[in-house]
Write a structure and sequence with these properties.
By secondary structure, the protein is mostly helical. About 70% of the residues lie in helices and about 0% in strands. Helix 2 packs across helix 3 (about 55-60), helix 4 (about 75-85) runs antiparallel to helix 5 (about 95-110) and helix 4 (about 75-85) runs parallel beside helix 7.
Length: about 220
């Protein structure tokens, strides 16, 4: 077989996988629209299935827990963050790797601006979803603490990595604040992504400065 060629079976698998991803996205979008319009708690799986034109069982197959419908990309994003922190380039610290990850994710975030605004409203209106989001932030904090500990040559439970990682979670609060929007349709005001990145850089500069300030005496930068 010539290099780079694709078999019929491979093409079928690729098409099947694309269709699955499209269906998954359609279900998540239908659910988010309902959550935003009528509330998370009052929206049922049968209602979501009807809106997405699938069976209720299909919704549960793609999203075993109802809250998964609100965070359809969270696991994949966290996996990419973990990989980016683990595969830092020589001389690249944890804060720089985090910024690089955010820049990698930014095009997709820009593309889904209205969706992200709607998701923010749904989360802010539902304490149970806020708890799920806090768990995600705790995972980010743990990943970042491990990366900072590696940068400093310190144990992951030492004061410096834990404090710097806790401060880093505030970066995601900044991003979350920026994702709020006024309506389910086209936002009355477009996101100021340049302003958001400026805030991000200031927040990460604070984190990086905190790491230096908390560095054990005698350890080189």
């Amino acid at each position: 077989m010539p290099p780079g060629s694709v078999t019929v079976d491979q093409a079928r698998v690729g098409l099947r996988e694309r269709k699955k991803q499209e269906r998954r996205r359609a279900i998540a979008c239908a659910a988010l629209e309902l959550f935003d319009r009528q509330g998370y708690a009052t929206t049922t799986i049968p209602q979501i299935a009807a809106a997405a034109d699938v069976a209720p069982r299909t919704v549960s197959t793609y999203f075993p827990a109802k809250e998964d419908l609100v965070f359809p990309d969270a696991d994949a994003e966290l996996e990419r963050l973990a990989r980016r922190l683990a595969d830092r380039r020589p001389g690249e610290n944890a804060a720089q790797a985090l910024r690089a990850w955010i820049l990698d994710e930014l095009p997709a975030w820009r593309e889904r601006e209205e969706e992200m605004q709607a998701r923010r409203r749904v989360i802010d209106a539902e304490p149970a979803l806020q708890a799920v989001e806090r768990e995600q932030h705790a995972t980010i904090e743990r990943l970042f603490a491990e990366a900072i500990a590696a940068d400093l040559g310190a144990p992951v439970d030492a004061l410096e990595p834990r404090m710097a990682a806790a401060a880093t979670v505030a970066v995601f609060d900044v991003l979350a604040d920026g994702h709020q929007g006024p309506s389910c349709g086209a936002p009355e005001e477009e996101m100021d992504w340049d302003g958001l990145l400026l805030q991000l850089d200031r927040a990460l500069a604070f984190v990086a400065g905190g790491i230096v300030a908390l560095r054990p005496a005698g350890r080189a930068a």
